């Protein structure tokens, strides 16, 4: 993974919500922390082109997120804060197959890949379940499976353990830390974040710490005043 920000900033309606930043991300597990409204989601959305830089440039494995928008989307999958919003089909198996159908794969290949990803996440028993009947943890796993089945090398997750009970949180945490793909995770779940190789702390639209997890978490407590 090689993600480069070159003087990239974001303004909405003339207000700069992300100050210009220049950095390169290559680590396997990267955490993003900060208070509400500090710019975390905006930063993460720049990576797969959901938000365009107002100034500067962002590239993902050499792809420009604006010029090469669809290739960037294929390289970096995104799991939204409310994953139920990105689940499109009513049945789990159909939802996982959806992205593969869109890519024009043959039926037997779709079936093979769908079964493999269900197996990978330990959820073959959910294949025929209705999506709206799943628990929060199951919904997260299905959303992750639906994105990873298309083969992005990078997964960006926006608060993946938010609103999960302790058991489901552990399940999703273990799934994320065990991924082969590179992951970039926005989270207030500090026990998860403290396992990561590199953590970025945002405050009021600025990247204020970029370093080891312990250092960033200590600084987070300081800016939060607790
Ligand atoms: N599409 C948009 N239009 C206008 N303002 C926006 C837009 N998206 C985000 N903002 C503003 O940008 C700032 C940063 O928002 P962002 O969602 O990146 O923060 P965050 O750190 O992810 O917050 P949270 O932890 O609450 O999800 C906020 O003031 C937000 O209101």
Automatic annotation (TrEMBL):
InterPro entries according to UniProt: AAA+_ATPase (IPR003593), ABC_transporter-like_ATP-bd (IPR003439), ABC_transpr_CbiO/EcfA_su (IPR015856), ECF_ABC_transporter_ATP-bd (IPR050095), P-loop_NTPase (IPR027417)
UniProt key word ATP-binding: yes
Domain ABC transporter: 3-226
GO molecular function: ATP binding; ATP hydrolysis activity; ATPase-coupled transmembrane transporter activity
Keyword terms, alphabetized: ATP-binding, Nucleotide-binding, Transport
GO annotation, cellular component aspect: ATP-binding cassette (ABC) transporter complex
Domain of life according to the entry: Bacteria
Keyword Glycoprotein included in the entry's annotation: no
PANTHER family assigned: ENERGY-COUPLING FACTOR TRANSPORTER ATP-BINDING PROTEIN ECFA1, HEAVY METAL TRANSPORTER
Family: Belongs to the ABC transporter superfamily.
Record-given protein name: Cobalt ABC transporter ATP-binding protein
């Amino acid at each position: 993974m090689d993600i480069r920000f070159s003087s990239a900033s974001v303004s909405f309606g003339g207000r700069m919500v992300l100050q210009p930043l220049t950095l390169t991300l290559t680590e396997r597990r990267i955490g993003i922390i900060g208070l509400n409204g500090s710019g975390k989601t905006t930063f993460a959305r720049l990576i797969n082109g959901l938000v365009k830089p107002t100034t500067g440039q962002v590239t993902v494995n050499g792809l420009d997120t604006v010029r090469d928008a669809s290739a960037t989307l294929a390289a970096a999958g995104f799991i939204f804060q409310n994953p139920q919003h990105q689940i499109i089909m009513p049945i789990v198996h159909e939802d996982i197959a959806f992205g593969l159908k869109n890519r024009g794969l043959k039926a037997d290949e779709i079936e093979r890949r769908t079964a493999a990803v269900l197996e990978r996440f330990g959820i073959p028993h959910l294949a025929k379940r209705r999506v709206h009947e799943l628990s929060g943890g199951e919904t997260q796993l299905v959303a992750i499976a639906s994105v990873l089945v298309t083969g992005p090398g990078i997964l960006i997750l926006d608060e993946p353990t938010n609103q999960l009970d302790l058991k489901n949180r552990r399940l999703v945490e273990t799934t994320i830390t065990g991924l082969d793909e590179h992951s970039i995770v926005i989270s207030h779940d500090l026990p998860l974040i403290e396992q990561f190789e590199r953590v970025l702390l945002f405050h009021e639209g600025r990247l204020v710490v970029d370093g080891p997890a312990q250092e960033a978490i200590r600084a987070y407590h300081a800016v939060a005043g607790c």
